[in-house]
Amino acid sequence: MTQIDEIEQTKQWLEQVIIGLNFCPFAKKEFVNQTIHYHASDKAQLKPALVEFLAQCHFLSDNPEIETSLLIYNQGFRDFNRFLDLVDDSNELIVEHGFEGIFQIATFHPEYCFADAEYDDAGNFTNRSPYPTLHLIREKSMEKVLSVYKNPEAIPDNNIALAQKKGADYFQSLLKKIKQD
Three-state SS for 139? Predict the structure, then answer.
């Protein structure tokens, strides 16, 4: 498996799940315009991953033509709790390094489970991805898009309802197929 494979699988997941099911109504434009930066990371330990995360913050800050960045962990953070530690520490870095109000993080993981959900609940698949992934988002862009989108606060509940309608088996087979291609 190469880093190119992980990026291609992540693109397939974006196209088929996130865009295809309209889980994120803002993703299609960036996907089509190719303004998403994909960074496959082989970091498996927290400290090197945080150094790399901070470098990605600087990369996005220095490249305004890139709208958003996906940090795809192909080796580490397979354990969801370890991944949550990475998320917490990454959020702290955003504050410590002056990126608060500039960037925010959305999270995706193969074992994603909302705090109030059963592990097998299909709603978890709104945030399940082929690989542990941190999505670095420009806050100004998100605010701009949300200001013109009708009922943005309903997006998560609508996504969960759609995921539950599709069922966990649907998503499990789709993710399995993506990882096999």
Answer: helix
Print pLDDT tens along the chain (181 aa).
566 799 999 999 999 999 999 999 889 999 999 999 999 999 999 999 999 999 999 999 999 999 999 999 998 999 999 999 999 999 999 999 999 999 999 999 999 999 989 999 999 999 999 999 999 999 998 888 878 778 888 999 999 999 999 999 999 999 999 988 7
Spans of all domains in the chain: 3-180
Answer whether 104's CB lies under 8 Å from 86's CB: no
CA 19 vs CA 23, 61, 64, 119: distances in Å: 6, 25, 23, 24
CB distance 128 to 109 below 8 Å: yes
Pair of tokens at residue 58: 């600087």
Rounded to whole angstroms, how far apart are CA atoms 116 and 136? 25
Amino acid at 101: G
SS3 assignment, position 167: coil
Cα 106 from Cα 68, distance rounded (Å): 11
